[in-house]
């Protein structure tokens, strides 16, 4: 499919989403008992519209359909509504709003779904939670998601993991629930100061390689523990990774990611101090770089 077709497809999808949004908003006004559910739908639709429109108008990259991967077969998912349409027509786009189990994640530890979000840990000390996707990233990709951390005494954080070989060991506390030898890279959202792990401050986001101690790039922010939802987009094309937080480019870095190990997932842990660690509205697109 050529870029113009992708763009047209996404524009058509945007129109469909706007129509659904309008419809959902009317129902929110009219039917109080369905109010909360439609409000969630409306928020999700707005989010997807913004992201997909940005992809359609992006000058640097375009998405391209790939051969069917049995692991990413749309029929295996349990998505409903607008999300089902996307998977059926464009299998290189994967979305999960965590309203029900999509069947595309393996859960470890305390990880599970609750109130329409992925909960990695609740407010408990010395626990971990992790998920590993059944999909693979490939060489060039973009993921976006929302996260929320807080509500507890203050530890330890979330990691988005990529270049994952396996997930078998889940170290607690400052290690954020992932073992250095099992994940090549991570984007960590840390909320507890561990000088022994080379944390620069208490609250920061970092791109790390082979464990949390080796920080390739750091961005200090209190948004890793304010108990509010934040939007993250991570794009990796030809080994160049860019991380956006709430629409702002916070980290750009050249890495040696070669997709030999292209598993991905999330982990989180607590120690003596704890927080609630949540993820929502996960979107994954395979990208095709334009020369
Ligand atoms: Ca949700
Ligand atoms: Ca830490």
From TrEMBL:
Transmembrane segments: none annotated. It comes from the Bacteria. Gene3D superfamilies: 2.60.120.200. Residues 68-81 have a biased composition (Polar residues). Signal peptide: none annotated. InterPro entries: ConA-like_dom_sf, Intracellular_Lectin-GPT. PANTHER family: VESICULAR MANNOSE-BINDING LECTIN. This is DUF1080 domain-containing protein. It comes from Paenibacillus validus.
């Amino acid at each position: 499919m050529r870029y113009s077709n992708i763009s047209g497809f996404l524009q058509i999808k945007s129109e469909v989403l706007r129509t659904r949004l309008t419809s959902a908003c009317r129902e929110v006004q009219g039917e109080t008992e369905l109010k909360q559910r439609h409000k969630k739908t409306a928020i999700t639709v707005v989010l997807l519209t913004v992201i997909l429109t940005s992809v359609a108008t992006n000058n640097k990259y375009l998405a391209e359909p790939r051969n069917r991967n049995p692991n990413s077969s749309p029929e295996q998912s349990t998505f409903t509504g607008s999300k089902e349409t996307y998977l059926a027509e464009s299998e290189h786009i994967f979305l999960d709003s965590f309203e029900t189990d999509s069947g595309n994640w393996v859960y470890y530890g305390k990880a599970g779904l609750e109130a329409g979000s992925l909960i990695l840990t609740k407010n408990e000390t010395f626990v971990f939670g992790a998920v590993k996707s059944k999909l693979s990233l490939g060489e060039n990709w973009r993921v976006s998601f929302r996260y929320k951390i807080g509500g507890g005494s203050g530890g330890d954080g979330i990691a988005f993991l990529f270049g994952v070989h396996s997930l078998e060991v889940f170290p607690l506390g400052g290690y954020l629930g992932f073992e250095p030898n099992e994940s090549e890279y991570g984007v960590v959202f840390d909320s507890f100061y561990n000088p022994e792990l080379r944390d620069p401050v208490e609250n920061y986001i970092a791109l790390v390689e082979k464990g949390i101690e080796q920080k390739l790039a750091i961005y200090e922010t209190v948004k890793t523990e304010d108990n509010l939802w934040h939007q993250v987009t991570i794009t990796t094309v030809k080994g160049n990774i860019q991380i956006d937080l709430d629409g702002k480019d916070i980290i750009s870095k050249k890495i040696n990611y070669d997709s030999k190990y292209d598993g991905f997932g999330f982990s989180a842990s607590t120690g003596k101090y704890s927080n609630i660690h949540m993820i929502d509205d996960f979107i994954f697109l395979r990208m095709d770089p334009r020369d």
